[in-house]
Design brief:
Blueprint: H1 3-19, E1 42-48, E2 54-56, E3 60-69, E4 75-81, E5 90-94, E6 101-104, E7 109-118, E8 122-126, E9 130-134, E10 140-144, E11 148-153, H2 161-190
Parallel strand pairs: 2-11
Antiparallel strand pairs: 1-3, 3-7, 4-6, 4-9, 5-7, 8-11, 9-10
Length: about 190
């Protein structure tokens, strides 16, 4: 691997960690194939493209959700509950269409994203995304993502070129870092 590739990978991991550092989440167990759970186990990673704990009224917020089955068996009838819009006054909702899946095999991942903007100032919590699903014997399971606390301030200043570049690099870093983190975890934790 060339030195520039290592630098880019390192920057991507750092950006990913910075991007997700404000997420409130519980520790998730990591299983190897030999000791993994025999049941389906969905992990939901939810992140937003906000680097501060506040946004401006009218500022577009992009929400990204990745769901992976880390369990040892398939998850069936996967239903996504996205409570983000309860008690919110929002606008510019685009791309919101969480899907339901009949089956998610072990190791399978799905991804979706959407965006919106707050219309009123205040303190908000973007609640966790929840997945409800069953195993082959119809036992019920549920998984949740982390959540985000945001302060919405009045005003909508123009976005600077510096902020546009920050967003572009943080988005690239997040997309690059996820597969790298998975490969590292698989090689050193799961496959041991």
């Amino acid at each position: 691997m060339r030195k520039s590739s290592k630098v880019i990978m390192g920057i991507s991991i750092i950006l990913f960690l910075m991007l997700t550092s404000t997420v409130h989440t519980n520790a998730l167990p990591v299983y190897s194939e030999k000791e993994g759970p025999p049941y389906p186990s969905l992990q939901i990673i939810k992140w937003i493209d906000v680097t501060e704990d506040h946004v401006k009224v009218g500022q577009t917020i992009n929400v990204y959700v990745n769901i992976t089955n880390f369990g040892g068996s398939a998850a069936f009838n996967v239903t996504i509950v996205e409570p983000i819009f309860q008690n919110f006054s929002i606008s510019n909702l685009e791309g919101y269409n969480p899907k339901n899946w009949v089956r998610m095999d072990p190791g399978a991942s799905v991804f979706y994203s959407f965006q919106f903007a707050f219309e009123k100032a205040g303190n908000y919590t973007i609640e966790p995304t929840t997945a409800q699903y069953t195993d082959a014997e119809l036992n019920d399971y549920s998984s949740k993502s982390g959540f985000f606390d945001l302060k919405v301030l009045k005003g909508n200043p123009p976005i600077s070129k510096k902020d546009e570049w920050k967003f572009a690099f943080s988005l690239m870093g997040g997309f690059i870092a996820l597969p790298v983190i998975w490969l590292i975890a698989k090689k050193y934790i799961i496959d041991k």
